[in-house]
Amino acid sequence: MKSLQDTAVLNNGAKMPWMGLGVFQVKEGKELVDAVRTAIVKGYRSIDTAAIYENEESVGKGIKEGLKAVGLKRDDLFITSKVWNSDLGYEETLAAYETSLKKLDLEYLDLYLIHWPVEGKYKEAWKALETLYKQGKVKAIGVSNFQIHHLEELMKNAEIVPVVNQVEFHPRLIQKDLREYCQEHNIQLEAWSPLMQGKLLDNKVLKEIAAHHQKSVAQIIIRWDLQHQVITIPKSTKPERIAENAAVFDFSLSKEEMKRIDELNENTRIGPDPDHFDF
């Protein structure tokens, strides 16, 4: 990983940038359009959204503006969205995909994910994703917030192994067993909320490592993600922060530094527990 355009090769051969822009909790409107445009201009090639974020239209507009600004084509980008829990089901998921495409104003998605493992529903949704993939409507399919047992259950009947599992991952939740399981089964792990929504920015250990490298704590965490071979999608709408987050390819963390950060783990979540959620 030497630049923002470097990619991981997923288990179906698709190439996904190691780093992208997340847009969780950013509302429709000019701020989001500008953020997506800025990210593309700054070199980002991956954008992650979801139906439940209710911001796909602005993401789509930002993509159009960004591509025009730098003279790129649609296939130069990697765009992800996710099907929400209320749309899990075979026909419902197929319809939800078309709705997301329409809102984004795109002809296809690079990656489509099941957002949460709702019991009794995610297998039918996965069949729909397999259909979309076989029809060439989406380049790759995967899941989000799946624990090991969810993945095992899914793969009992699945024809296609998920390419990605996007989960909460940061120094307070290093998900070691899940990470190793995904590596063994060639499922790429991807981190949402890599900065723990800012709750790690004052951490003493991280500040010390950041000072040593003359980097920000956010940059240290993002670099830690990448050196763990975890794709990461930090969220920001501020141009200076979008640029700063991407400036992580001119240094590396030592084995000792990686170990110190790993030891911050407390198995602490800021998001819902995938085994205990009610939405």
UniProtKB/TrEMBL annotation:
Residue stretches making up the NADP-dependent oxidoreductase domain: 20-266
Pfam family of the protein (one): Aldo_ket_red
Protein name in UniProt: Aldo/keto reductase
Organism: Heyndrickxia acidicola
